[in-house]
Amino acid sequence: MRNLLHSEWTKFRTVRGWVIGMAFAAALIVGFGLLPGSSGSCGTSGGQCVLPVGPEGQEVTDVFTFVHQPLTGDGTITARIASMTGIVPPVPGEEQARQQLAPWAKAGLIIKDGTKQGSAYVAVLLTGEHGVRMQHNFVHDEAGRAVSPASPVWLRLTRTKEKVTAQDSADGASWTTVGNVNLAGLPATVQIGLFVASPQWTEPVTESFGANGAAGAPTRATVEFDNVSLTGPWTVTQVGDPPGEAEPTGENSFSLTGTGDIAPAVAGAAGLGTTISETLLGTFAGLIVIVVISAMFVTAEYRRGLIRTTLAASPLRGRVIAAKAAIVGSVAFLLGIVAAAIVVTFGQEMLRDNGVYVHPASTATELRVIAGTGALLGIAAVMSVGLGAWLRRGTAAVTTAIVTIVLPYLLAMSVLPAGAAQWLLRIAPAAAFSLQQSSIVYPQVANLYTPLNGYFPLSAWAGLAVLAGWAALALALAAQRLRGRDA
Q1: What percent of the chain has pLDDT above 90?
Q2: Is 45 inside any structural domain?
Q3: Measured between alpha carbons, how far is residue 137 from residues 163, 263, 360, 454 in Å?
């Protein structure tokens, strides 16, 4: 096998067009990744964005209307949400805003470590479409009762040392525990009170061939609180400086209006900026070149009749295909890793220098994205070798490889509606592009979690498994045909 590998490597490196083509594929990935991005998310070129960081290290959105007072030691706050209404922007084709709550509009009671953005908190709240919830420290969400905002809801939040308990009630007499949490490090004095927030509204923009974009705008929610158990004095703070209002409407009653959100920060239609995955858009172009070269690495021998010599020198025909796949797959894998490492390292800097906000990723995520890009290209190359050995004709093999590997990704990104795109990227080899996803999907954040926005339906390793399965199938078909028929 060692001599066979050496022989196949010699064949590959002595064909200048293949070597240049592989280098060109890597150059495409690097070139697209290092192109200057457009300014926008942070303003003019060279601008800077800084998002608050939550107590668990994630970037967060912490923007809301807050009516509060200090609480030292243990304590409880109870209030009733008498009504909750909202306004969302008009959908494409409409001119008037709609009287409607955003699905994740939220209002309720909160205990927070001051008014600084990103500080620790626990809240019990009513949402636009997801009932009562308990949320804390931005990334944690626990569902309570499925309650409509049209029905009055009683809420209660109790602090006992570092333990905070959230409860809700339909009548203010019989209480149900939504959840409780030990918030380590909560200071002796915290801010306790009422809040309201309403996040960005997003929805796909659809043209005749499917979804190819998104539209959205800030929303607003208004909530009426009564039967507030604590008395004043109260302080009104617009955390994050959003437009909003808060005023007393009677004894122990308040009306709050606000926008914003208390949640993890995301990239995409509902968020700010981009991710390291966006710097690797050139992978698609590089993949096309690698697929073509890998298929031709096999079909060229059939076209010239040299395959007979190869098989005569190695009667174990399955090993011949395995050796070819190992050589071209290794070359694509290594070039992919090198190109991705350059892009992930320097592409972020170029985007930031041009005023584009790039969400930072952990070192582990960056390494997974880099190695995953190499694996995506390497296994796609192996699959193309299998298709070339199975079909034996250059045009047929290249066309089949592109239709099977490349076309599904193109359709999912630019033609198909979101639902169809996600279905296709569960079964097609392009599922392995999930290896490049660097953002987390948070169910409690309204966003367009679609491939177009950098979110894939499968996990990174599940996507890799799909591509590996296709490659194994292609190699198995090639080996079966090679054993069953003469070259």
Answers
A1: 56
A2: no
A3: 14, 8, 19, 25
Q: Are residues 132 and 203 in the same domain?
A: yes
The count of structural domains within the chain is: 2
Domain ends where: 264, 285, 309? 264
Contact 80, 395 (CB under 8 A): no
CA quadruple 478, 481, 484, 487: dihedral, nearest 10: -90
Residue 331 · residue 425 · CB < 8 Å: no
Give pLDDT, residue 209. 46
pLDDT digits (tens, 9 = 90+) for 212-230: 555 567 899 999 999 999 9
Torsion of CA 333, 336, 338, 342, to 10 degrees: -160
Pick from 241, 264, 287: which residue ends a domain?
Answer: 264
| Long-range contact pairs involving 153-156 (C-beta distance under 8 Å, separation at least 24) | 153/80, 153/81, 153/126, 154/78, 154/79, 154/80, 154/81, 154/227, 155/78, 155/79, 155/80, 155/81, 155/108, 155/109, 155/124, 155/125, 155/126, 156/76, 156/77, 156/78, 156/109, 156/124
Based on DSSP, count helices (H) and strands (E) in the chain, helices before strands.
Answer: 10, 19
**Tokens linked to 129:** 């479409």
For 170, the token pair is 């339909």
End-to-end Cα distance, the chain: 20
CA quadruple 468, 470, 472, 478: dihedral positive or negative? negative
Nearest to 67 by CA among 352, 258, 315: 258
Any domain includes 139: yes
Q: How far is 261 from 123, CA to CA, in rounded Å?
A: 13
Is residue 352 domain-shared with residue 455, that is, in the same domain? Answer: yes
